[in-house]
Here is the input.
Amino acid sequence: MNRKEFRDLASPTAAREAIDSLALEGGIERVSLEEARGRVLVARLDAELDVPGFDRATLDGYALRARDTFGADEADPARLELVGEVHAGEEPDVTLKEGQAVEISTGAVMPDGADAMVPVERTDASSGDKEVLVRTSVAPGDNVMFAGADVAAGERALGSGTQITPRDIGLLSALGIDEVPVRAKPRVGIVSTGDELVRPGDDLESERGEIYDVNSYTIAAGVEDAGGEAVLYPHAGDEQDEMEEILRTAADECDLVLSSGSTSASAVDVIYRVIEEQGELLLHGVSVKPGKPMLIGRLDDSAYVGLPGYPVSAMMVFRTFVAPAIREAAGVPEPASATVTGRLARQERYEEGRHRLMPVGLVTDGDGDGEMLVYPVDKGSGATTSLADADGVVEVGPETDYLEAGEPVTVTLFSPDVRPPTLFGVGEDDPTLSRVLDGLERPRYLSVGSRPGLRRLREGVPDVAVAAGPLERDIDAVDLGGWEREWGLVVRPGNPDEIEGLADLIDRDLRFVNRTTDSGLRSSLGAAIADLAEERGTERHDLVDAIDGFDLGLRAHESPARKVIAGDADAGLGLRETADRLDLGFVPVGEQPVRVLANPDRTEKEGVRELEDALEGAVPVQR
Amino acid sequence: MNRKEFRDLASPTAAREAIDSLALEGGIERVSLEEARGRVLVARLDAELDVPGFDRATLDGYALRARDTFGADEADPARLELVGEVHAGEEPDVTLKEGQAVEISTGAVMPDGADAMVPVERTDASSGDKEVLVRTSVAPGDNVMFAGADVAAGERALGSGTQITPRDIGLLSALGIDEVPVRAKPRVGIVSTGDELVRPGDDLESERGEIYDVNSYTIAAGVEDAGGEAVLYPHAGDEQDEMEEILRTAADECDLVLSSGSTSASAVDVIYRVIEEQGELLLHGVSVKPGKPMLIGRLDDSAYVGLPGYPVSAMMVFRTFVAPAIREAAGVPEPASATVTGRLARQERYEEGRHRLMPVGLVTDGDGDGEMLVYPVDKGSGATTSLADADGVVEVGPETDYLEAGEPVTVTLFSPDVRPPTLFGVGEDDPTLSRVLDGLERPRYLSVGSRPGLRRLREGVPDVAVAAGPLERDIDAVDLGGWEREWGLVVRPGNPDEIEGLADLIDRDLRFVNRTTDSGLRSSLGAAIADLAEERGTERHDLVDAIDGFDLGLRAHESPARKVIAGDADAGLGLRETADRLDLGFVPVGEQPVRVLANPDRTEKEGVRELEDALEGAVPVQR
Here is the structure.
C-alpha cells in the first residue's frame, strides 16, 4: 500500500457503498420503559394480557342483569334489590342473582352474574338504600368494557422496527411491559491523534503550537445526533505503540472507529499497519473536495473511517458520508427537518471537476414567503468559525462548474436542530452592537469589518451591515440608526509611556498594533494621519512608514489591546470602551459614527424589526 | 370552592394563558461539553483566546522573511540559508535573520523573524540541506494563518439562547471551553393516584380491578420529548395523608406537578386542600372536550396542572396545553416536523358547541403527491390502543359542527418523532398476517374484524382490508392474494372431553366461547351451524340457543383459546395455528379463505407493493 497515491480516486457513490457495507449494527439490548423513548424495537411485541383485564364498569351506577330491566322506562321502573357495592380497585364480594343490583364505581370490576350496568342518572334510590329503581332498559354489555376489549392477549401490539414515542410507551405500560428489547446504539469510537492537540479545559501552550481538539467533540456530538453512542478515547500522542494500542482498544470496543486526520504522518502509518495486519482496506481516496484522502476499511473487527483534519471538512464528510450509515444502523431515520431547500444567494464558480461539499449558511428572505437564501461560507476549511457560521452542506456534482444566483439547492443541515438565524448581520465588530444583539432571539453576526460588510450588503445576502467610520454613501440601504464611539490609542494601565496622541507613534520609538484595512477604525486612523500630514506639510506615507507596526493589522477589535496587555506592543488602535473594560489606559484621538444599515428588501423581516426596536432601546439612536 | 361546578368554563385560550403564566423555568446549571448537545445557553460566550493561538503555517514548506524572496522566480531563485526545522506541537528554537529560512510543517508555529512561508513544491533543497532555493516571491503573511484570524480573543462567540448543536460544540472546543451555563430543564413531577393503579412490571390482580398505570409513563415520555425532566413519584394510594405528602414533596422538588385524574374523589379533595392552604387556583374547568375538568394553579411554589384520567384524553390535553409551556421554559422550540397538514379522510360531525381535541391517524394517499389523509380514531377515550393507533391531535373550534371529507386540517403530532405508517391495514386478526406484517417496515394494522374492515375499505381510508370467511364481493378492491386457514374448536390439551365437532356443543353440556359477529371466523361458524340445521331439519336459532356461550363473542382471535386455558370454557372458536402455538387441543371444523384486498387508488403506494411482495414470499398465495 502506498498511501501517497490517489491515482484511482473512488466516486462518492462508491464511498457511500463502502461505508454501507461496513455493517455498524450494535446488536440488541434491553432497556427499561423509562429509557425506551426514541429507541427502536427489535422484536414484535404481542399483548400477553387482556386490557382491561376484567369486565369494567365505564360509569358510576348499578351493575345488574340486563334481562331484569327489559321493559323498564320512566313510567314503569324496574325495582331491584341492592345487595352490595364495588369500588375501583376492589374485588367484588357478591354474585348477582335475578332481581338484584350492585352499586358500582367507574373502573370497578363487574360482579359475577351482572352483564350490564345502568348509569346513576337513570336510577332512583328507594326504600332506604335497600332497593334501586331503574328507569331504563339496557342490553347485555351496555356500559361495560369487556376484558380484552381494548387489547386482547395474543394481539400484535408493536412491530419490530418501531421507534418508540410517548404513545407507544402508553401501550407498553397498559400491557405491563417494563422492559423492551431494542437495537443497541452503534458504538462509535473517536480517536484523536497529534502531539499538538489539547482537550478543552486543559491549559494550552500556544507558543509550542498547541491547539484545542475540535474534531473529537464535534464528531462525538454528531454521532449522538445520528443515534449512535460516542466513545472518546484518550488522546494519543505521536508515539506509534501508544497510538496502535488505543486504535486496537477502540476497534475492540466499538462498532466503528473514526479518526480525523492528524498532521503527523505516523498516525496514518499506524492505521495502515493495523489495517494490513488484521483488517481490510476497502477504499482509499475519494473524488470529493474536501475529503479526498478519506480512508474506509476495517480495523480488526470494527469498521474504520478516516476523516479529514480540518474541522469544517471533517464535519461535512462525517455528515454526508458517515452519519447516514450510523442512522441506518441505529434504525433511526433522518428527520425530514434535516434537509431544507433554498435558492443560492449569489453565483458560485468551481475550479475543478470534482464532487464538492460546500458549507453554506441560511438566511430567510423576509418577504413572508419563507423562502430560504443559501450562501456559501468561504473562510477556508481551517477556520473553526465556519462551523458556527454555516448551517449545513450543499453537494455539488463534478459536472457543475457554475451555479447561478437563484439556483435551487438542497441543504443537508449539520443537525436537524439547526435553525436559520432570525437576523443575519455582517460588518464592524463593536461592543455596543454586541449588547444590542444580546437582546435578540437568534441573531448571526459576522465581524468581517465595515468595508466587507458593506460589500456583502450590496450583494444582497445579509439582512444588515454595520459600518463604522467615514461611510461610503453609494449604497442602497435603509439606515436603522447608530451611535458614536470614541477611538484612540489603548495603552498600558496609567499610560506609563505618557503617550499623548498619534504624533508620539511617529516621533517616538513605540511599538504600535493596528487593525486590518477592513475595519472602520483603521479608516478613521488613516484620515487622522492624513490630517496630521497636512498639518505638518508632509506626505501621509512618510508618517505611516515612521510608525512601527502600522502595516500589520489585526482583524478583531480587542486584539490590539490584548497585544498591549501581553507586552507585545506599547499602543494599539482601539476603543475607549475596550480600554475601560480591560483596565488599560486610553489616549483619545476622535469619535466615529457607527451605522446599522438594512437591506431595503428586508426591512419588514421580523428579525430586522426586532433589531430596530432593540437599537432604540439600547443606544441613544441617531437618525 | 365547589369542585363539582363547572358553570363558568374557561376558554381554551384562557387555559393556555393560565399555563403560560405559571413560569416553569428551571434556573441555570453548568454542563460539560460532552453533555451540552441540545441544551440552551443562558449567557453570551465571548472568546477568551485567539484561535489559532499563534501564527500558523498552513502548508508544509519553509518559513522565511518575505522581503528575501522579492524578485525570485523559476529562473532566478532566492538562495536562503537553512537554519532549523519546526514541527507541529513544537516551540521554535530559532529566530530568523536576513537570508535565512526554516523548514516548517503544516500547523507548526512560525518562528520569530519569519513573516511568510513558501510551500515545499516551489523550492529545491540545495548544498546538502544547508540551503534552500525558493523559486517564487511571496508577500508578508502568505501561507500564514495569523493568531486570532479565525476567532480573536474578545469576539462574540455564541449568543444567549443558542440551542447547542454539534457545530457549536466545535466552536466551544476551539475556544477551550469545557463547561457551559445552560437552562436547567424544567423539572416536572408526575403523581399518579388511585388504589387500582399498578406499575408496569409488577403483578396485576385483575380480579380486584387493578390496572397498569399508563398515564405516568406516557406523560413522562411526553415531558422529556418537550425538553423537560420527568420525575415519577411513588404511586399514592387513596389514603389522604400519604397523597398530600407526595404532592407536597413533588411541589417542593419540581417546577411543575402534573397529576392525571383518579377515579377516586379523595385525590381531588387533597389537591384542593393543598391549593387552598398554600397555593392559588387559576382556573378550573375548560370548555374543551376532552379536558373539561382541567385544573390549573399553584401547589406551594410549584405550578400544577391536573390532566384527565383516560390515557388518550390525558395525552391530548398534555400535548395541546402543557407541552408548549414546557418547551417554552426549556427554551427548545417545537420542531416544524411536529405539525403536519392533511385532508380529512371522511366527514365528521360534532354534537356540541365545545372546543374539541380529536385524536387522528395519518395515512399517505400514495399517488405520489405525498398528500396526507387524516382520519379520526374513535375507539373511545378509555382505550389505550387509540394512543398507538393515533398519530396526533386536531383541534376543532366550537363553531364547527361539521367537517367535510377533504377539508384541510392541521395535525399536531403526539411527538415530532411520530411518522405515519408505510401501510395502513384493517380487518381480520390472523397469525399468518401478523408474520407477513413483521417483514414490512412500519405497518399499522387494526384488528377490527372482517366486516368492519371491508366497510372501512369501502369508505376509502385504509390502504388494505383483510377479510376471512365467506366474502362479500360487492366491493371495489384489488385482490393482493391470500391463503386458507383451518378453523374449528380449540379445546383443552389432549381433548379430555372428547369433543368431536360442533354437534357436541349443541348436544352436550359444554361451555363455549365465541368470537364477535365482526370476525370472519364467526361468519364461517354461522354457516357451519346453518348447514347442521339443514342436515337435522331444524332451525338455525334452535341450535344456537342450545350452545352455552354462543352469544357473548370475544373480539380477538386468541381470546377464546385463552379462556379455555383459564378454565373458563371447554371449547373456543379458533384456529389450528392458535391451538398449536398455545399447546391446546384442536377439533377441526373447516377451512376458510383469507383475502388481502387493496384500495384500488393505492396499489402503487410503496407500502402496498411491499405488502404484495411480502405476501408472495410468506404464504402460498392464491390468486
Notes: Chain B has a mean pLDDT of 90. Residues 262 and 565 of chain B are 33 Å apart (CA to CA). The longest helix of chain B spans residues 311-330. Chain B touches chain A through 134 residues (CB under 8 Å).
